[in-house]
Amino acid sequence: MKLVTCGLPYANGKAHIGHLRTYIPADVYVRYQRLKGEDVVFVCGSDSHGTPIVVNAEQQGLKPKELVDIYHNHFQKVFEALDINFDFYGRTDSDYHHKRTREIVERLLENGYIYPKEIELAYCPNCDRFLPDRYVEGICPYCGALARGDECDQGCGRHLEPGEILQPKCKICGTPAVFKKQKHYYFRLTAFKDFLEEYISNLRGTENALNYAREWVRGELKDWCITRNLEWGVKFPGDENLVVYVWVDAPIGYISFTEKACERLGKNWREIWIDGKAEIVHFIGLDIVYHHCIFWPAMLKGAGYALPNAVVASGMVKIEGKKFSKSRGYVVWVEEDYLKAGFSPDYLRYYIVNYTSHQKDLNFSWHVFKEKVNNELIATLGNFVYRVLHFAWKNFGEVRMEVDGEVIEQIRLAKEKIEDAIERWEFKEASDAFMELASFGNSYFQSARPWDLIKEDENAARDVIASALAIVRALAILAYPVLPRAMSRVAETIGLDLESATLESALEVPDVIRVSKPKVPFEKIDDKQVEELERIMMERVREAERKEKGEESGGEGEEEGGSVDERISIEEFARLDIRVGKILKAKKIKGSKKLMRLEVDIGDDVRQIVAGIAEAYREDELEGRLVVVLTNIKPAKLMGVESNGMILAADVDGKPILLEPEKPVEPGAKVR
Question: Binding residues for ATP, per the UniProt record (predicted)?
Fold first, then answer.
């Protein structure tokens, strides 16, 4: 048995393309596992607690539960529209979840892994209350950037414990806060260092998640404060004035939602979470690796629960080549942008899994979206399937299935590629495999020319169509997890029951296939439709820019004495997309002593970059080297060669010294 979970969407805002980087691949994975004959339970739910929900609800004049109701229903609607089918989709403000969370916290208390500690917390004298993390802002004690109470979100990105922030002030009224002592409760994370080192060494998953986890556990672990001053949340056992920190109760949702799913499915949840008789796989975003690979397994171990077997982390998402940002307008809303445009959910499912490796950053572009649908789904897959089905229906209706051995071998090859790719969470490779099979089918059909052959030898033409139909039948099965709607229609046309199909049955050849009148699998995307969506996007960006300028108007960069302040803000620094890159190839540019042409892997792309380092480095000592790259600089031509990035180096006596990460990291890792 397998349990597959997805990171819980926060019930504080609408679904955007970034969310789907986790949920669509997870659904695809579950569908492929079921085609392999695996017994899979698939759960998720709304993360309903935490300070941001309380703050947002207050601003809108709502109660927290009313706000959660809105976005919980919204996410359910979006998931249903995109054919993301959970066995149970819950919410963490439910009674059954509160019960399970309190039970686990009580176990941790009994086992000595939670202890009380008096700490100094920010307190607003004007509002007359202690300030929970998102109610306070100030200065990060590590990097000096503006930060919120629980995280340096605009600087170094470090988690901040309660009381750590410097120069705190109340985010609600702006009053400078004072520090007052209060008793809170800590989880003894430091007690699990040896356990975590061994656990992570055996944990499976994507390398981006595992690499981060290994580095964190080798470093210094700190005990976590797991209580907050809020009324909205799970009441802490023994102190009803405090609630459990959201990062304690949210992952426990995986357990409470499994309980409810098992009630529906007639299974025993204890076999999964207590007895450890199931493989537990978490699909998450890269930004919550620490919580899932460090904090969560330590909690489970301390409470006597089964441990996750794999953590699958997706790369981040860009919009039109820009860093994803709701505040700057670089966002695509699933409901009001994508679904409102009337596009098939299959198109977005294909784009999400096929654009790049699951671990790498995905760039969403409306233009690229159109090209992938029109030039790949339609021109390759849809074209082949419809031509074969229409020819078979028009000329035969019923086809005796005498199939070419080469065709069976190509189907077998595609099936094996898909099985291998899915076990490595390489969904692009899996979707490439069925697209390659469709390409083979196109070539087979075109070279056989059954429209001419039928005039001379009807039986020979029938045999060609039989082999082509075997490919169509296999595609309906192999592509179904990615394209469930289109492939369900194809299956219906040839009388294939996908409910009982398996990956192995893609190789089966029925005696006869009866073909009903087919429908076109995919509709072409019109240029004007994409242009309108791009216009909406850019207007959103311009509106955000106008708003930002309006908020920042006044000084025009001048200080009191009239001199220009050349310092940049943290927001300006955040616009720089600096990443670790890996040099794949290096070649001196003819006619230049200093310039070197480099091909650099930056995670989601391979860039050609021209760098003035030829006098300092040989070609052979550059290839395979990790470097630091500014990726969002405008392209430039040097000696007639276009450069799409800048390699960063120190200038030492006029000689460039390349900047390198201290330890090996994956190409595409962000520098901040």
Answer: 326
Q: Is 140 annotated as a binding residue?
A: yes
pLDDT in tens, 88-141: 999 999 999 999 999 999 999 999 999 999 988 888 888 887 887 778 888 988
225 annotated as a binding-site residue: no
Residue 605, classed as helix, strand or coil, is: coil
**DSSP 8-state assignment for residue 153:** T
| CATH architecture, range 364-514 | Orthogonal Bundle (1.10)
Report pTM. Answer: 0.79
Neighbours of 405 (CB within 10 A): 8
Predicted pLDDT of residue 354: 96
Q: Please say whether the beta carbons of 455 and 386 come within 8 A.
A: no
Asked if pLDDT for residue 555 goes beyond 70, the answer is: no
Answer yes or no: is 6 a known binding residue.
Answer: no
**Residues across the chain:** 672
CA distance 599 to 609: 6
Express each pLDDT in 265-321 by its tens digit. Answer: 999 999 999 999 999 999 999 989 999 999 999 999 999 999 999 999 999 999 988
Q: How far apart are CA 642 and CA 599, in angstroms?
A: 12
**Run of H or E residues at 79:** helix 64-81
Which amino acid is located at 526 in the chain? D
Enter the tokens of residue 634: 């405008």
Site of tokens 């120190």: 650
Element (H, E) at 32: helix 17-35
Was 590 annotated as part of a binding site?
A: no
Instruction: For residue 301, say whether it is annotated as part of any ligand binding site.
Output: no
